[in-house]
Design brief:
Elements: H1 3-11, H2 20-44, H3 49-68, H4 72-96, H5 101-128, H6 132-157, H7 169-181, H8 194-220
């Protein structure tokens, strides 16, 4: 609370009442304590970063199979949860101290396979329904997604910073999840947005790749 607000409380006879800042501080302290306890219990558990990575991988394989079966809502849930686990395993590895060099390698490798296999299933779905342009755009989205990751990894190996561009992994996951949830026949809201979603993915991944190439060229030139 600002000084003027504290003075107003004092003048109005409410100086003894807890300030809003004090309430927020107590809430933040309680939340921090809860997080600390949860973190300690998680670290003390037998859960390993590799187990999280492999579970995420299994969920993405399941999502691909569900796409091929035209079960888009279930596929979206499996893909979103699996991808979330993949994005959290690195943080858990650092937090718990259980990470290994091989675990980091496995995590990065599985991340590429997971995204590719789900998009491959989407491409197969489009091809099966005679939507060749959408199938081609999905293949381009796969290549673009790989290049977004590769350009950053290669740039950092050369000592350059490379985080520019909009097509980060979380953004790609959100777009594809939304497309699956709102696909033709998904049953949630029949907006037929899976095809626009893959066109969007293809576009932003290509643009982000070009942005990163230009960004790194400026640093290393």
């Amino acid at each position: 609370m600002a000084d003027s607000e504290r003075q107003d409380d004092s003048l109005s006879g409410r100086a003894g009442a807890p300030s809003r800042r004090g309430v927020r501080s107590d809430d933040d302290t309680a939340l921090a304590a809860m997080r600390a306890r949860a973190r300690e219990r998680l670290i003390e558990s037998r859960l390993t970063p590799n187990a999280i990575s492999l579970t995420g991988f299994a969920l993405n394989l399941l999502a691909a199979g569900l796409v091929l079966a035209d079960l888009f809502v279930a596929a979206a849930i499996a893909f979103a949860v699996g991808s979330l686990m993949d994005m959290l395993d690195g943080r858990y590895s650092r937090m718990s101290g259980k990470g290994t060099a091989f675990g980091a390698f496995l995590d990065s490798t599985l991340d590429r396979v997971e995204e590719g296999v789900v998009l491959a299933a989407v491409a197969a779905y489009f091809a099966r329904h005679g939507q060749d342009a959408a199938a081609g755009a999905t293949v381009l989205a796969v290549v673009g997604s790989y290049m977004v990751s590769y350009t950053r990894a290669r740039a950092e190996a050369l000592g350059a910073e490379c985080k520019v561009g909009i097509a980060t992994r979380p953004v790609r996951v959100v777009i594809l999840t939304a497309g699956l949830l709102l696909a033709d026949g998904a049953g949630v809201v029949d907006l037929k947005l899976l095809e626009p979603a893959v066109y969007l993915l293809a576009g932003i991944t290509v643009v982000t790749t070009l942005q990163r190439v230009h960004h790194v060229r400026r640093q290393l030139a």
